[in-house]
Amino acid sequence: MIPIREEIECCDVLVVGGGMGGLMAAIAAAESGAAVTVVEKADTLRSGSGTTGNDHFVCYIPEVHGTLDAFMRELRQTFAGKNADGNILRKFASRTFEVVQDWHSWGINMKIDGQWTFEGHAFPGHMRTHLKYDGHEQKMILTREARKRGVKIVNKTVVTEILTNEGGEIIGALALDVSRSEPLLKLLECRAIVTATGAATRIY
Fold first, then answer.
1. Is the pTM of this model over 0.85?
2. Residue 90 and residue 60: Cα distance in Å, rounded?
3. 144-155 pLDDT, tens digit each
4. Which helix (H) or strand (E) segment is 99 a member of?
């Protein structure tokens, strides 16, 4: 029988998954004043689809692309936009430049050769929608920025069940700590949960 830790860990927002999406959600919640915990099955320094770094990012920059409508028409023709929900994609695109500027100020080089560089993912002669950048240290930097904002990161822990009360409201989660040779069950109490488990492309 797997032992259960008696102490219940508490937070306002529990983020399940420490990839780029999970860390950015944690940073946003912490900046809004919430006490945030990230639970990651591996380690936030090397987890998620961006584990080994990325070199391009869908980004709308008004001074480069003109109107958001024009940008969206081109984005919908790319692999990244063809099968995505249109409303969600538009909301995402409208905020990308804000995020790109944050990342650049945190130390992720978003300007190749000192300028905004758009390449690939477009038909010849069409608008380019993917910003080239140097993301080889992005997970380390996002982990650092989350911790600077007071986010608690719990690595090598897998959330196995989301817990609700009789009214169906989220009250916490059950997690399995696999950081030691003998697994340990943990109870986490929270007011909200953000699931950022992505495509699990690095699970193996």
1. yes
2. 10
3. 999 999 999 999
4. helix 86-106
